[in-house]
TrEMBL record:
Keywords: Membrane, Repeat, Sugar transport, Transmembrane, Transmembrane helix, Transport. It comes from the Eukaryota. GO terms for molecular function: sugar transmembrane transporter activity. This is Bidirectional sugar transporter SWEET. The chain crosses the membrane at residues 6-28, 40-58, 70-93, 105-125, 131-153, 165-186, 192-211. It is a multi-pass membrane protein. Pfam families: MtN3_slv. Coiled coil: none annotated. Mediates both low-affinity uptake and efflux of sugar across the membrane. It is found in: Cell membrane; Endomembrane system. GO terms for biological process: protein homooligomerization. Its main location: membrane.
Length: 252
């Protein structure tokens, strides 16, 4: 009965995490449509990538005992694909400064994961200590992932608008932390449960901010500058037309 309940919670955790990882699709649809990263930050997606890499490794038989944490592997493996896709889109449309910053942070994340995987495989020879090493580093990555959307909190408070703090990202973060906390407790695995003790209150904080400032709505789009590049291709300068609020100061 206990195993069935744990599996059921793991499946629900997979579903909520899938919604969490897929939530930025709306954001990046907007980025592609406007061909600009605007004021969106890439940091939450890079941090989420580090979390997915570490917990996919944690769930594999190299670290865990056989396939005891198979639900952890499936969702985080899918998360790797999604987060890499979002980061690629960001790098494609971000200004040069944003590309350099995002690319550098992503490289550091990949290097940390690679070192962790190599040490846990070749320097440690039992499952318990491998889980302690990978789980501890994963704990840091998970806390950072749940806290990453707080990068937008200052902007939300200053502008009194939640335009750049998507509701679904905050909501599914809260829901996923509740379910994975339950899964970790049912599995008697504190390394899986403990990150969600931080993720749950952080998710509540983000939802509280959204409820407080949602009345500010979405900032209206207004023409802000002239599209000089388009007009350079025109023979007559009087054909200049205003561009649609294409903010090239996207940041990571």
């Amino acid at each position: 009965m206990g195993d069935r309940l744990r599996l059921a919670v793991g499946i629900m955790g997979n579903a909520s995490s899938l919604l969490l990882y897929a939530a930025p699709i709306l954001t990046f649809t907007r980025v592609i449509r406007k061909r600009s990263t605007e004021e969106f930050s890439c940091i939450p997606y890079i941090v989420a990538l580090s979390n997915c890499l570490l917990y996919t490794w944690y769930g594999l038989p190299v670290v865990s005992y056989k396939w005891e944490n198979f639900p952890v592997i499936t969702i985080n493996g899918l998360g790797i694909i999604l987060e890499l896709s979002f980061i690629f889109i960001y790098l494609w449309f971000a200004p040069t400064r944003g590309k350099i910053k995002a690319g550098g942070i992503t490289l550091i994340v990949v290097l940390i994961f690679s070192v962790t995987a190599l040490v846990s495989t070749f320097a440690i020879h039992d499952h318990h200590h491998r889980k302690v090493l990978v789980g501890t580093i994963g704990l840091v990555a998970s806390v950072a992932m749940y806290a990453a959307p707080l990068v937008a909190v200052k902007q939300v408070i200053v502008t009194k608008s939640v335009e750049f703090m998507p509701f679904y990202l905050s909501f599914f973060s809260f829901l996923a932390s509740v379910l994975w906390l339950a899964y970790g407790l049912l599995s008697h695995d504190l390394l899986l449960a403990s990150p969600n003790l931080v993720g749950l209150p952080l998710g509540l904080l983000q939802l509280g901010l959204y409820c407080k400032y949602r009345e500010g709505g979405i900032i209206e789009e207004e023409p802000s500058k002239w599209d000089l590049e388009q007009n350079n291709s025109q023979e007559k300068p009087q054909h200049m037309q205003p561009a649609t609020n294409e903010n090239t100061n996207g940041k990571c």
